[in-house]
Amino acid sequence: MSDLNSRHGLDDSTWAELEEIAARYPHKRSGLLPMLHLVQSVKGRVTPGGIEACAEILDVSAAEVSGVATFYTMYKRKPVGDYHVGVCTNTLCAVLGGDLIFERLKDHLGVGNDETTPDGKITLEHIECNAACDYAPVMTVNWEFMDNQTPESATRLVDDLREGREVRSTRGPRVVTWREAERVIAGFSDGLADEGPAAGPASLVGLGIARDRGWTAPGLEARSARTSTSGGSARTSTSGGSARTSTSGGSARTSTSGDSARTSTSAEGDRS
């Protein structure tokens, strides 16, 4: 085992944790996404050796692993700084100041998109929608939200990060390093999950209205009854590990792959 691990540039502890992740799933290849995050937490990026290691543990080809690692933009093929700073430049954030924030940070840090400062502290990237439009313009630091930003607050934020001051997410815990955050995404707790607020007032407005008006979601039995009578036809078929449900008259389809669970860990597009 030690020789094999040495060939892939991983130590025994990391190899054991990769196997632990794979064992979490009925179909071990479903563990690929968190396994790649673990590789990043150790190596600072997805390395060729990390790809080979994941492929061997999952009994898939290196090409399959590489295809996943190059598809999702949260996987990096070059080293990332201590703090990955993402600026949302999707429509709403851009209109409310995201584009200005990104331009200010490029000038302030002296780097372009997906580049790292010479001191290795900050990697700057423009990212697509963070599903936090109620707090636009939004930034992230190692995937933790920084809400309602301005060019001025953004420059103060990166200066604090570079100078080693403690920074806290506006809706989450204190910010850890990128490698530490990657280990959490791989499924290994850092004990900070309950630190800081989980949701802010803007996200809870709808819930408040529903409570004030006595609105509740229908129970499971009511939903099942409507589904079985919708359009007069409900068909369910399972084949080769794939379950597909279609209801005619409404076109509702759900597909679950029995052999692989693919979860997009990043909504942003990789456009420089």
Task: Report the structural category.
Answer: alpha+beta
Q: Which sequence of SSEs, written as H and E, runs from N to C?
A: HHHHHEHEEEEHHHHEEE
CATH fold-type name of one domain? Glutaredoxin
Rg over C-alpha atoms, rounded to the nearest angstrom: 22 Å
CATH architecture of one domain: 3-Layer(aba) Sandwich
How helix-rich are the residues, as a percent range?
A: 25-40%
Mean pLDDT: 84
Task: Write out the CATH superfamily name of one domain.
Answer: Glutaredoxin
Straight-line distance between termini: 41 Å
DSSP summary: helix tally: 10
- Give the percentage of residues in beta strands: 5-15%
Spatial strand arrangement across the major sheet? 2-3-1-4-5
Give the overall form.
globular
* Unreliable stretches: 232-272
SSE topology sketch:
Layout: H1 2-7, H2 12-22, H3 32-43, H4 48-58, H5 62-71, E1 83-88, H6 91-109, E2 115-116, E3 122-127, E4 139-141, E5 144-146, H7 151-162, H8 178-185, H9 205-213, H10 220-229, E6 234-239, E7 242-247, E8 252-257
Helix pairs in contact: 2-3, 2-4, 3-4, 3-8, 4-5, 6-7
Give a structural overview:
The protein has 272 residues and is of the alpha+beta class. Among the domains are: 2-71, Arc Repressor Mutant, subunit A (Orthogonal Bundle), CATH 1.10.10; 83-198, Glutaredoxin (3-Layer(aba) Sandwich), CATH 3.40.30.10. The protein contains ten helices and eight strands. The protein has helices spanning 2-7, 12-22, 32-43, 48-58, 62-71, 91-109, 151-162, 178-185, 205-213, 220-229, and strands at 83-88, 115-116, 122-127, 139-141, 144-146, 234-239, 242-247, 252-257. It has a five-stranded mixed β-sheet. It has a three-stranded antiparallel β-sheet with strand order 6-7-8. Helix 2 packs across helix 4 and helix 3 runs antiparallel to helix 4 (48-58). The longest helix has 19 residues, at 91-109. The relative contact order is 0.11.
